[in-house]
Amino acid sequence: xxxxxxxxxxxxxxxxxxxxxxxxxxxxxxxxxxxxxxxxxxxxxxxxxxxxxxxxxxxxxxxxxxxxxxxxxxxxxxxxxxxxxxxxxxxxxxxxxxxxxxxxxxxxxxxxxxxxxxxxxxxxxxxxxxxxxxxxxxxxxxxxxxxxxxxxxxxxxxxxxxxxxxxxxxxxxxxxxxxxxxxxxxxxxxxxxxxxxxxxxxxxxxxxxxxxxxxxxxxxxxxxxxxxxxxxxxxxxxxxxxxxxxxxx
Amino acid sequence: xxxxxxxxxxxxxxxxxxxxxxxxxxxxxxxxxxxxxxxxxxxxxxxxxxxxxxxxxxxxxxxxxxxxxxxxxxxxxxxxxxxxxxxxxxxxxxxxxxxxxxxxxxxxxxxxxxxxxxxxxxxxxxxxxxxxxxxxxxxxxxxxxxxxxxxxxxxxxxxxxxxxxxxxxxxxxxxxxxxxxxxxxxxxxxxxxxxxxxxxxxxxxxxxxxxxxxxxxxxxxxxxxxxxxxxxxxxxxxxxxxxxxxxxxxxxxxxxxxxxxxxxxxxxxxxxxxxxxxxxxxxxxxxxxxxxxxxxxxxxxxxxxxxxxxxxxxxxxxxxxxxxxxxxxxxxxxxxxxxxxxxxxxxxxxxxxxxxxxxxxxxxxxxxxxxxxxxxxxxxxxxxxxxxxxxxxxxxxxxxxxxxxxxxxxxxxxxxxxxxxxxxxxxxxxxxxxxxxxxxxxxxxxxxxxxxxxxxxxxxxxxxxxxxxxxxxxxxxxxxxxxxxxxxxxxxxxxxxxxxxxxxxxxxxxxxxxxxxxxxxxxxxxxxxxxxxxxxxxxxxxxxxxxxxxxxxxxxxxxxxxxxxxxxxxxxxxxxxxxxxxxxxxxxxxxxx
Lengths: 249, 593
Hints:
The complex is a heterodimer. By secondary structure, chain A is α+β, with helices and mostly antiparallel strands. Chain A has helices spanning 2-18, 27-39, 43-55, 61-73, 77-90, 95-108, 117-122, 127-151, 157-183; strands at 186-189, 194-197, 206-210, 215-222, 225-230, 234-239, 243-245. In chain A, a hairpin with a 3-residue loop joins strand 5 (225-230) and strand 6 (234-239). Chain A starts with a helix and ends with a strand. Chain B contains eleven helices and 31 strands. Chain B is flat, with a radius of gyration of 51 Å.
């Protein structure tokens, strides 16, 4: 049974570290350098250092939180909200990042995105945790129900009890997994006055303009444009350069 | 016709105006002109002017007078040597003798590529479900005047101060959209930067001005832009704008708009430096520019202990004021200091530069009587032209703090109330995270990773393999003869291998023992007895249907028995000759088993 749990759970626990690109730079040193620059008031340098890390494919909750702070200081409000949203995805327990998002939205007069109940439910834990718990619940329950029979063990009450509990955990993870899938389409408007266009062309009519930091859902893509739907059913095409998904693909 | 035209009252209302200017409206709304060119279907077409030069655009115009609703722009056929592009449309309603007539006009820019006589052929169009015919139109194109300049479209340039810049600095720049003898910019509709080396903040106020570019005077549109470089090194600052342009039919005579045109401003290559690490002064919070600080204001010059007092500091000048954080005041010396507030006030009369003021308000509470001055406030900024940090520290402000007149109990409770921030309800930005946290390669869950479905498949595959193993084990337990047969075959193969080895070595005794063993092992599944307990007759009985195999088996078994008592009999056998026959007899027995 242990083998099954290891096979089901370990990939999510170790994937983040094993899938990382080779450390071509000292990430923690760069993070500290950015923190020092920020503390000295050199926000642009802090942005540079932290953006280099992110561009290199290195994400961490604290680094993204600080990147959001620095981006806000240099006036790139959309980028700040994007960094904080990403930080919150990695560490949903960070009250400071939550507070910064509330602060940014209050300052920019932008509403938080309207999330369905299953999407709010999925924000309770990091996305990878939900997948790991659901996998362990499903396959653990199945293993406990089938293994005694396959190996000729004497059936015990606790087998069925634990299996029922694990399958119940799996069922409880279902809405969260659906919420994660729905949230994977969320993105942030990066630039202020971003035009929402009628067609995916540069000369297209502008339907409405979105503010930096607003969130919207990507529905489809074509060329250099994404069709997004913001709150209030404001839907149209935006340039990819003006809109970034919270979870890059 | 003239009478009708004279009495026609034009009450034209333009319903659709796609990039067209008032000139179209005026020309469309002239019923006399339109009526004079109408053919029988109420559709007319002409070039304006009808004579042009190579490289100079003219207008090709189609008027449809019989339509009752908005029409789609017709697509004129291609004419070799003439580039035609849609420029705009308009619609008007003429009331003639009490009858409303809708006139739709579609304009196209036609650019002749060579001299000659061009004819736009007649073509058919869809008139709200009916077919209409646009009559042909002719354009005469003359060779270009040898002294005439080539056609010059509008162009854009970025005007920057001629110096090095610093990361985080707010640079006051201007985007110049330059008018030419052939085209005039009318409005800027969209602005976009072309790379991520800097943050661009264009102003919404665009003015028409005269300016100098490359030592020559020009006129055009000017858009103030604030640029903040965020990357260090040699960077290119460029931008792209969408401009509504009007072309001149003749020098000084404005013609039809060309519609929105995308212009790339010539990239400006600048050097961006990092702020010097040496020479930084206390109280530097990122201010870069040229600033002055007005005399700080105290809300009261005399307060009681525990009574709040505010210090207001106004910092004015040109630079990145909007992003400047408030410097920290030292709380030592008997003062309790709250987090300061700040407010940026742009200069209402100057929209072209990053000029403005930033007001910092500090709330202080003296903890005891007898204090004579507020704490000093270290403050500094970086001057990019002088390339040096400038000290603008706010000195201590004189104040008299008296003993509190409140009752002792109240005085005791005062510090407790003072702990509560006056702006506690307002959201504030939190500080930096001290640790980076666990590094990952994506901020999201591994929804699209290849290994996710593979890992999900491993547990069911393992369970399936376990189930198959269990089924196989149960099957073998129910059919033990399979295992017995398998064991006998293996033992026969091993004995045959020994026999082959013995044959190669010429060891006749060993060959006979191994061959006899192979025959007995091969015969054992057919009998309930073990192989070593089978007699010669048991083996021969199983081979009674195969005379050859039976003869070989008899010979081998007899020789083997004899070999146990006489070496001469065994020596008479030739193992190499007998081996194939033994193998065949073993195969025959194995086949029967």
